[in-house]
């Protein structure tokens, strides 16, 4: 198609005039002032969610009144002054002022490209922090960033699960960001070199977080999230970055090569030891422990099952709980985390006991270790088998065959097989095939729908799994122990399914309730397990499993008990109180369940 030259020239002339008209310099003074006023309002609106002026709830009142993050900067400043850290308080105050100045400067940078890039970063930070505030009543910190990285494979599903909370926060952030991006008349703008101010704020905040080892983490938006994100991935305390070292070895300065002195196994050993760690299975939501539900009918009628009832996990968050478990930590060890994580792991004991150590992972590729695995642990593993079938609910089915094949291949050797099962992590609706739906919601509320999905997921992932495993697995010379990393809230008043911190988020006992049972054909070991399971039902915890594994590997009973306490071969003491840790190793609280 062609145009007469005079028409084309007219069109170009009009386009040029329109482009000039849209430049800030040609805008009326009233319009420029309006944009400036909107930006001032937007700066205050950035902090409205944490002040409790919108739908988010930044303050929770319980036994104590908590004001984080409502007065987050003032609280940090007050703490520094109370401890006479005057120099640090001055540096912190200056950093916060620079961060606040940087927030204002972002909106008045003259360059559209630079302003757009900074506003885009602001939008992401605000959306993330507001969503965190909505779900957890607090802003992000390094430990939460690490946790999200560990569970990044679930990101898409989790966004869908918490969409009702996340989408309004994203929309609010988008509106504020659009206002920040509005161009201003030249007289209100700053040159692009001023863009260094918000970057300087992020740099100073990151340095303070690293210097104080996370004691200082609270800074104004968007500096806070940016600095915590950078500090989480910087090399701190040793030679590797956090990603390369794994979540909790990062905090310990632990070296990959370690030598331990402990005695050789002296007792009778069980040749094949299978330790199955499930994901997000709540102990009192299984038929074997609760007659009011019928989601594990086949497991309930399995006479070979040695059921210890509803047990209590070490912690209510996956990585925290699993690291504690693999290093045999007990109550009190978390307060001395660096010392605890330098103890031998279950892999060290297995290798020292002459076992072929095999790890089945349903979450990560063969050369990628998650769940807080340290380099020292991975070096002790003889073989890692990754099961990553799609759809993901098929993975546990595949694990049954992998267990069978692994034990058959190693029939004439001692094998320690550790399984990180896929389980039923929220959201629950995609953890089972829809054609296997058994339970329907009792009501129309979201919690009713969620519980129905959870029951279906349990029926598929637990009952179906063990029914299939029973058909293919010979228990000859074999011990199997099963539990889950943590439980679930399954509450209509709590947005988080688990991982609440017990400080400014309500933590319920259900987050620590897990199943615990064993199977074995070993006459002596089985007899002792059945006796203690009967006498101490519903009084055990994760803390008794680690020493039980050591006893099965042949380590001497007295030596194990002195170092790791009671095992599943010991009847729990009368009046024993159980508890689990909520939060993370650097910010945790012990939650009592009894």
Task: Give the name of the CATH superfamily of the largest domain.
Answer: Alkaline Phosphatase, subunit A
The name of the CATH topology of the largest domain is Alkaline Phosphatase, subunit A
CATH top level assignment of the largest domain: Alpha Beta
> Which term fits the overall shape?
elongated
Total number of distinct structural domains: 2
- Separate helix tally: 21
How large is the radius of gyration?
28 Å
CATH architecture of the largest domain, by name, is: 3-Layer(aba) Sandwich
Q: In sequence order, what are the helices and strands, one letter per element?
A: HHHHHHHHHHHEHEHHHEHEHEHEEHHHEE
Overview of the molecule:
The chain is an alpha/beta fold and 594 residues long. The chain has two domains: 21-234, no CATH class; 272-592, Alkaline Phosphatase, subunit A (3-Layer(aba) Sandwich), CATH 3.40.720. Helices cover 43% and strands 10% of the residues. It has 21 helices and nine strands. The strands form two sheets. It has a seven-stranded mixed beta sheet with strand order 2-7-6-1-5-3-4, with helices on both faces. A hairpin with a 2-residue loop joins strand 8 and strand 9 (587-592). Helix 6 (142-150) packs across helix 10. The longest helix is centred in the C-terminal third of the chain and has 27 residues, at 446-472. The radius of gyration is 28 Å and the shape is elongated. The termini are far apart. The relative contact order is 0.12. Mean pLDDT is 85; it is low at 1-5, 59-68 and 236-257.
């Amino acid at each position: 198609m062609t145009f007469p030259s005079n028409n084309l020239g007219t069109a170009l002339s009009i386009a040029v005039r329109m482009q000039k008209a849209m430049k800030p310099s040609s805008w009326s003074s009233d319009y420029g002032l309006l944009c400036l006023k909107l930006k001032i309002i937007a700066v205050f609106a950035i902090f409205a969610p944490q002040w409790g002026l919108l739908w988010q709830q930044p303050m929770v009142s319980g036994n104590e009144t908590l004001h984080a993050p409502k007065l987050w900067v003032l609280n940090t400043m007050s703490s520094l002054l109370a401890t006479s850290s005057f120099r640090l308080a001055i540096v912190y105050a200056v950093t916060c002022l620079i961060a606040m100045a940087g927030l204002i400067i972002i909106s008045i940078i003259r360059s559209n490209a630079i302003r757009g890039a900074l506003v885009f970063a602001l939008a992401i930070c605000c959306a993330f922090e507001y969503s965190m505030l909505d779900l957890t009543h607090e802003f992000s910190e390094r430990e939460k960033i690490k946790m999200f990285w560990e569970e990044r494979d679930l990101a898409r599903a989790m966004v869908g699960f918490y969409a009702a909370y996340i989408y309004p926060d994203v929309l609010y952030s988008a509106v504020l960001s659009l206002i920040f991006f509005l161009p201003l008349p030249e007289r209100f703008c700053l040159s692009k070199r001023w863009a260094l101010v918000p970057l300087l704020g992020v740099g100073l905040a990151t340095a303070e977080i690293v210097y104080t080892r996370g004691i200082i983490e609270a800074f104004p938006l968007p500096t806070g999230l940016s600095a915590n994100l950078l500090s989480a991935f910087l090399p701190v305390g040793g030679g590797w970055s956090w990603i390369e070292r794994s979540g909790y070895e990062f905090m310990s300065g632990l070296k990959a090569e370690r030598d331990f002195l402990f005695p050789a196994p002296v007792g009778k050993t069980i040749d094949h030891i299978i330790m199955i760690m499930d994901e997000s299975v709540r102990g009192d939501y299984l038929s074997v422990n609760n007659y009011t539900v019928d989601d594990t009918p086949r497991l309930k009628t399995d006479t070979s099952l040695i059921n210890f009832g509803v047990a209590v996990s070490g912690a209510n968050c996956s990585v925290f709980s699993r690291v504690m478990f693999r290093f045999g930590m007990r109550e009190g060890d978390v307060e001395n985390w660096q010392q605890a994580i330098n103890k031998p792991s279950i892999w060290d004991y297995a290798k020292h006991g002459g076992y072929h150590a095999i790890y089945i992972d349903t979450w990560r590729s063969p050369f990628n270790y998650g769940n807080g695995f340290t380099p020292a642990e991975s070096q002790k593993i003889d073989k890692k088998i990754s099961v990553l079938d799609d759809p993901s609910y098929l993975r546990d089915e595949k694990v049954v065959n992998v267990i069978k094949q692994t034990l058959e291949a190693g029939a004439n050797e001692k094998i320690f097989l550790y399984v990180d099962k896929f389980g039923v992590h929220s959201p629950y609706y995609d953890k089972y095939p829809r054609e296997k739906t058994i339970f329907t919601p009792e009501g129309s509320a979201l919690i009713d729908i969620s519980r129905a999905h959870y029951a279906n997921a349990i029926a598929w992932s637990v009952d179906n799994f063990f029914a299939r495993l029973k058909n293919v697995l010979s228990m000859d010379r074999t011990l199997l122990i099963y539990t889950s990393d943590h439980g679930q809230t399954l509450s209509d008043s709590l947005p988080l399914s688990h991982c609440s911190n017990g400080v400014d988020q309500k933590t319920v006992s259900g987050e620590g309730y897990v199943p615990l049972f064993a199977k074995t054909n070993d006459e002596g070991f089985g007899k002792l397990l059945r006796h203690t399971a009967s006498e101490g039902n519903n009084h055990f915890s994760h803390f008794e499993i680690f020493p039980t594994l050591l006893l099965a590997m042949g380590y001497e009973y007295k030596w194990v008990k002195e170092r790791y306490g009671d095992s599943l071969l010991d009847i729990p003491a009368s009046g024993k109180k159980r508890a689990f840790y909520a939060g993370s190793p650097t910010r945790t609280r012990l939650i009592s369940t009894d």
